[in-house]
Each structure stands twice: as structure tokens, then as C-alpha cells.
Task: inverse folding
């Protein structure tokens, strides 16, 4: 169906067509209507968080919008606009909570790996090379702690699994952060 004829359809009709019939043109039309709202909410949340993570939040918002299209049920009484905005708000709030909690901190404090000069004679140009260079600078304990924290294990769970104190886990994390910061400066 041409996009021109889709423009006369309601949001709910387009959501139905996109979800049930897997109509990509209907989804594109609907996304076009909501793109400004998605971006505005991402910008707003990025400002609230004090970091420029607008691009990341815009991607999260788009995922929230896609989820809204897939799960919208007009029989529940809400308009599609209200439902979509709520879905986008919820996913952005969740993303901000995760960002501020420090989970995925290695991702949040990512380094650009394109041509990062890690030493006088080593230039890293791929994510795999970068990861290997970073890991090479960590002790076995630090690698184990990072691995467990990336699997969402608490400090206490990590300490118990490694047979060390919670303070030792915290110290290892602090050393890893310092090593990342020193790589970032290079």
C-alpha cells in the first residue's frame, strides 16, 4: 500500500497493520509520525542524566516504540499515542537507571577503539584487538572480578566465589577503572 494512502490511517490502524500483517510501510509511516517524539524524549532524558548519551537513548526509545507497536491492544482503552509514549518513557527510565547504577560501566565508559594508541608501537584498529589489549593489562584477579561483575554478580557474590573479601573485590574494580582511565588518556 503506498505511503500516501497510509497517511489517512489512524495510529491504531497503522499499528495493527504493522504488527499483525508485518506491514513495513505501515510501520515506516507510523514511525515517521512518532520520530520527533522519540528523539525529544531521548534528548530530555540525556540532559537529566548529565551525560551525552542521546544516541544510545534514541536507540532504546526506538526499541520501546517497536515494542509498543507489537504489543498495542486497543481494547485496553488507551490511544496508541498514549501507549507508545508510556512504552518509550518506561524503556528510557530503565536505561537511565541501568546507566546510573553503574551496571555495564565498562560499556558506559567505553573507549574509542579506532586507532587508539595504547603504547608507542601498538595501534589498535578493531574491537577484538582493543579487548585483547585491555585484558592483557589486567591481573588474573581483575579479569575474574570484571567477568563476574559483567554477569551481574554482586560484590558479595563475587567475593564468595573467589574466596576473597568484599574489600578486595572493590579494590580490584578500582584498579580496573584506573587502568581504563589511563588507556583513555593515551
Result:
Amino acid at each position: 500500500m503506498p505511503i500516501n494512502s497510509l497517511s489517512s490511517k489512524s495510529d491504531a490502524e497503522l499499528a495493527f497493520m504493522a504488527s499483525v500483517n508485518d506491514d513495513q510501510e505501515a510501520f515506516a509511516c507510523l514511525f515517521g509520525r512518532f520520530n520527533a517524539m522519540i528523539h525529544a524524549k531521548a534528548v530530555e532524558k540525556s540532559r537529566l542524566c548529565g551525560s551525552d548519551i542521546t544516541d544510545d537513548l534514541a536507540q532504546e526509545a526506538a526499541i520501546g516504540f517497536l515494542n509498543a507497536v507489537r504489543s498495542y491492544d486497543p481494547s485496553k482503552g488507551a490511544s496508541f499515542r498514549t501507549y507508545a509514549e508510556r512504552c518509550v518513557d518506561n524503556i528510557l527510565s530503565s536505561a537511565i537507571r541501568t546507566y546510573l547504577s553503574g551496571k555495564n560501566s565498562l560499556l558506559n565508559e567505553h573507549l574509542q577503539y579506532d586507532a587508539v594508541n595504547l603504547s608507542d608501537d601498538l595501534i589498535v584498529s578493531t574491537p577484538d584487538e582493543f579487548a585483547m589489549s585491555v585484558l592483557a593489562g589486567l591481573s588474573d584477579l581483575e579479569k575474574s572480578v570484571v567477568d563476574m561483575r559483567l554477569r551481574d554478580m554482586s560484590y558479595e557474590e563475587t567475593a564468595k566465589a573467589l574466596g576473597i573479601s568484599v574489600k578486595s573485590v572493590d579494590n580490584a574494580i578500582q584498579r580496573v577503572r584506573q587502568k581504563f582511565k589511563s588507556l583513555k588518556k593515551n
